[in-house]
Design brief:
Layout: E1 6-13, E2 16-23, H1 28-35, E3 54-57, E4 60-63, E5 76-78, H2 92-99, H3 109-120, H4 128-134, H5 146-160
Parallel strand pairs: 1-5
Antiparallel strand pairs: 1-2, 3-4, 3-5
Bound molecules: FE2/S2 (inorganic) cluster (2 copies).
One FE2/S2 (inorganic) cluster binds near residues 44, 51, 52, 53 and 63.
């Protein structure tokens, strides 16, 4: 069987211009992890259900296992590695997850945080119900969600300040 030829793609990731080679079938999550070595974006399923792979593509939260790397060419991607300041200070949403014990094993956390930031940026005020609804596509096997919801509410409030 013929192999899928690779092409070089250029995009902006976490504020930097990057280039790498991807086959037409390469998923964005694999490109981020294997080519760019940004392993903070996790793979928790192969069925587009868990949300561990959520990144922002042109400011919109997407499951990067449902996007081809070539579809991100010329676009802006933000991953969990792009949230903290250069001096290491955490993004308010990351800080809120830390403060409110919104994680246990942490496997789901990068995707949760990326989804939570998008939720926090929406015009509608956040309620616990809206947070639970907004996190429907992010599965956590450890926490029972209560602390995650508290963290998202606190992180959203901190982002508004
Ligand atoms: S790895 Fe993308 S949704 Fe699970
Ligand atoms: S903290 Fe373990 S999967 Fe969410």
């Amino acid at each position: 069987m013929a192999t899928d030829p690779s092409a070089s793609i250029a995009l902006r990731v976490n504020g930097k211009d990057v280039e790498g080679s991807a086959e037409a079938r390469t998923l964005l999550v694999d490109f981020l992890r294997d080519t760019l070595r940004l392993t903070g974006t996790h793979i928790g399923c192969d069925t587009s259900q868990c949300g561990a792979c959520v990144v922002h593509l042109d400011g919109v939260a997407v499951k990067s296992c449902t996007v081809l790397a070539v579809q991100a060419a010329g676009r802006e991607v933000r991953t969990i590695e792009g949230l903290a300041d250069a001096d290491g200070s955490l993004h308010p949403m990351q800080e809120a997850f830390r403060q409110h014990h919104g994680l246990q094993c942490g496997f789901c956390t990068p995707g949760m945080v990326m989804t939570a930031i998008e939720l926090a940026q929406s015009a509608e005020p956040l309620t616990p119900e809206r947070v639970r609804e907004g996190l429907e596509g992010n599965i956590c096997r450890c926490t029972g969600y209560h602390n995650i919801v508290q963290a998202v509410l606190a992180g959203a409030a901190a982002m508004r300040q």
